[in-house]
Amino acid sequence: MNPVDATRTEAWKGLAALAKQFSPNFRERFASDPGRAARFTFTAGDLRVDLSKDYIDEEILAALVKLAKEVHVAQRRDAMFAGEHINVTEDRAVLHTALRRPATDHLVVDGQDVVADVHAVLARIYAFADKVRSGEWTGVTGKPLTTIVNIGIGGSDLGPVMAYEALKPYVKPGVECRFISNIDPTDVGEKLKGVDPESVLFIVASKTFTTLETITNAKACRSWFFEALAAKGIPADGAVAKHFIAVSTNLEKVAEFGIDPANAFGFWNWVGGRYSVDSAVGTSLAIAIGPKNFADFLAGFHTIDQHFVQTAPEKNVPLIMGMLNVLYTNFFGAATHAVLPYSQYLHRFPAYLQQLTMESNGKRVRWDGTPVTTTTGEVFWGEPGTNGQHAFYQLIHQGTQLIPADFIAFANPTYPLKDGGQDQHELFLGNFFAQTKALAFGKTAEEVRAEGTREEIVSARVFPGNKPTTSIMAPALTPSVLGQLIALYEHITFTEGVVWGIDSFDQWGVELGKQMAVALTPAIAGDRDALAAQDPSTRALIDYYHAHRK
Ligand code: F6P
To answer: Of 390, 418, 426, 546, which one is the catalytic site residue?
Structure first.
């Protein structure tokens, strides 16, 4: 399937005209149209998604749906779910959606029932997780393993750490996960502080098992482990088999590293790294929250997958949200998109989304190799509310850039704190409700003056309003709801990629820097010829390092 140039479609021209004449004027829109909030609020699974404070009306929604049809979002979605090789630059199927299909489903791809394969691995992960959690699987001295150290980077880290943090209330008491990702030696140093070698389980998570950071950190952890055992006078024989497991698609490399493939959990090259938290890459999470909760997490993804496949475009939440992002990027000049969870548990969610969205859609050529025809790939960023309010919301409210923002909140708190009768969650939610209201409706000069403000500072205190926001609410942050949120953003990312004609599943842009980092090591180690061959800026930087390294 060749990419359709969205900019040459009828719908694009229509959208351009609609965007040009669109005035958000939320005060007027809501005042004159009491049904607006209800009409532009949609449901997907447990997620209630209010788009009424977005730049949307009936005509824009119809044009967005028309554009999605003209660029064949539905056909490409179906091709993805069916296992066609839509990742063309790597000639691979894209089947993260198969990772969460129920065991009763079947999907034969390239001659293999991938759903059966997924459930065979899941059964092994669940059995292993149960053994670790119950204490049946012990360390070399017979102690239960209670500190789980996941060593991985990118998709082999961001998903597990984000989900572990998000689902802390579900973590088995006494079990702690730590995550080592950065090749900066301080990461290993700090994360291993206080770890007891007798009760640690290392999970080396790497799709390729060749990633420099992960393999280097795994070796550093293995050396630390041997030294820590020796310091306690414990022989190291057989210890690796008890304390190191692997998660990878490359079981040969796992064996080369010295981990018994019997202690490895596989996945497949049709799972992209940034789409892999629901594969064996989630093993640390499965141990921490247990198989039942992990299964609920997967079921949550599946709920949104079904919504994406089965719901008409006019009510299809990921599709509409993806199309709105295209609208903001291509017709309103938005370069960034904020994601603002009103949940401290979701504090790593924006970082997780950065890889998902930007490694997927930060591309300048289309899947047929031709240049993209419009701006692609917004910068996604964010912090949990209310912390963000006291940091960067100033710019969203009163700056000169348009920043669409997704606000996420939950009706039920995990800690129902009440101080003197004041429910703290209600105070928190007050901020969530207030921010989207303030961003939409602003504050006029007259309102500022009416407060008795000195004329010279009236303009500084005016809030222009008309800033677009999406409000996502769910009853509570459960494993299922977290899965639903992740799948929502996966499919938003997919939809945007189809409009832009992008292969959202490769990541060639990370390769050059990786290769150069390895090629530079001789120069950094002091090889004069290698240093002389560098460009003047790089040479001077390395010289600075040599002059200051003690
Ligand atoms: O950063 C590039 C990348 O390939 C990511 O896509 C991936 O998630 C990460 O490196 C880690 O890769 P691996 O799981 O193979 O170690």
So the answer is: 390
The answer to whether the beta carbons of residues 264 and 254 sit under 8 Å apart is yes
For the four alpha carbons of 214, 220, 223 and 227, in that order, the dihedral sign comes to negative
d(CA 130, CA 108) in angstroms, rounded, equals 30
The length of the chain in residues reads 550
Ligand 1 pocket test, candidate residues 356, 505, 507, most atoms within 8 A of CB: 507
Ligand 1, pocket-test mutation among 156, 257, 283, most atoms within 8 A of CB? 156
Does the domain at residues 6-71+311-500 carry the CATH identifier 3.40.50.10490? yes
CA of 432 to the centre of ligand 1 (A): 34
**CA-272 nearest atom, ligand 1:** 6
Give yes or no for residue 273 CB within 6 A of ligand 1. yes
Q: Whose CA is nearest to atom 9 of ligand 1?
A: 154
Query: Per-residue pLDDT for the chain (550 aa), expressed as one digit of tens each?
Result: 899 999 999 999 999 999 999 999 999 999 999 999 999 999 999 999 999 999 999 999 999 999 999 999 999 999 999 999 999 999 999 999 999 999 999 999 989 999 999 999 999 999 999 999 999 999 999 999 999 999 999 999 999 999 999 999 999 999 999 999 999 999 999 999 999 999 999 999 999 999 999 999 999 999 999 999 999 999 999 999 999 999 999 999 999 999 999 999 999 999 999 999 999 999 999 999 999 999 999 999 999 999 999 999 999 999 999 999 999 999 999 999 999 999 999 999 999 999 999 999 999 999 999 999 999 999 999 999 999 999 999 999 999 999 999 999 999 998 888 888 889 999 999 999 999 999 999 999 999 999 999 999 999 999 999 999 999 999 999 999 999 999 999 999 999 999 999 999 999 999 999 999 999 999 999 999 999 999 999 999 999 999 999 9
Query: What count of other Cβ atoms lies within 10 Å of the Cβ of residue 106?
Result: 10
Catalytic-residue membership of 359: yes
Based on the residue annotation, tell me whether 198 is a catalytic residue of this protein. Answer: no
- Domain spanning 96-294 has what CATH number? 3.40.50.10490
φ, ψ of residue 445 in degrees (nearest 5): -60, -40
| d(C-alpha 414, C-alpha 477), whole Å | 9
Give dist(CA 77, CA 99) in Å, integer: 16
